[in-house]
Amino acid sequence: MEIRKATENDFDRMMEIYALARTFMAEHGNPNQWGPTNWPPVALIHQDIARGNSYVCVHQGKVVGTFFYNYGMDIEPNYARILDGNWVGGSSYGVVHRIASDHSAKGIGAFCINWAYERCGHLRMDTHGDNKVMQSLLRKLGFVHCGTIFVEEDNYPRRAYEKV
Q1: CA 93, 74, 71, 133 torsion: positive or negative?
Q2: Which of 65, 74, 113, 115 is least enclosed by beta carbons within 10 angstroms?
Q3: What's the pLDDT tens digit per position in 79-131?
């Protein structure tokens, strides 16, 4: 597998993968994270690509996964306020959002998250409380649960994770 920046030529495939992810999440007890809002919105994905923060995972010549990655100081405004805990590290950090795969190969999600972590050495992520699949993956990859954050998209609390 390899990771590369997404281009507009990848857009349709990325949206297919997001549709598959919404179905997968609903089938695995998490219908509310992306389903009701048809997340992520088209305009946001175009913006991610234009800003150079959208990536795809390619396996055997085919795009099989996609995610947002960025790195810097205080780059995620939703992470400024954390409840029921604290962030572990206070330095610049990377974030991964909107990660999804087509499940055509084993380990796509772990490959993408590990790729991002290797670039920064300090990664924060969050996921819906019902997303047991992602919570399990993050624990398996050495992330610790730090508390609860909220996002603008909906009123559901998100479990915040960090790996330093």
Answers
A1: positive
A2: 74
A3: 999 999 999 977 899 999 999 999 999 999 999 999 999 999 999 999 999 99
